[in-house]
Design goal:
The chain is an alpha+beta fold. Helix content is 17%, strand content 12%. A two-stranded antiparallel sheet has the order 1-2. The model has no long low-confidence stretch (mean pLDDT 80).
Length: 65
């Protein structure tokens, strides 16, 4: 079974406060602030339709009548 990870104490690299977490990184309050300020809007990308290169020739067997 999976064992719970021990919380380690470290200094938050962003604000400098002492925090305890499973992994090193910003504290929870910094994470919430970053999500609020840095969250972006997603947009759909338009891609061009596939057009084969001019040097592509059709398969000789497929074009055989």
């Amino acid at each position: 079974m999976l064992e719970a990870l021990d919380l380690t104490s470290f200094t938050c690299p962003r604000c400098g406060t002492t925090t305890a977490a499973d992994f090193y990184g910003p504290c929870t309050s910094c994470c919430e602030q970053l999500r609020a300020t840095m969250a972006g809007q997603t947009s759909e990308l338009e891609t061009a339709d596939y057009e084969p290169k001019m040097n592509v020739t059709p398969n000789a067997v497929a074009s055989k009548e």
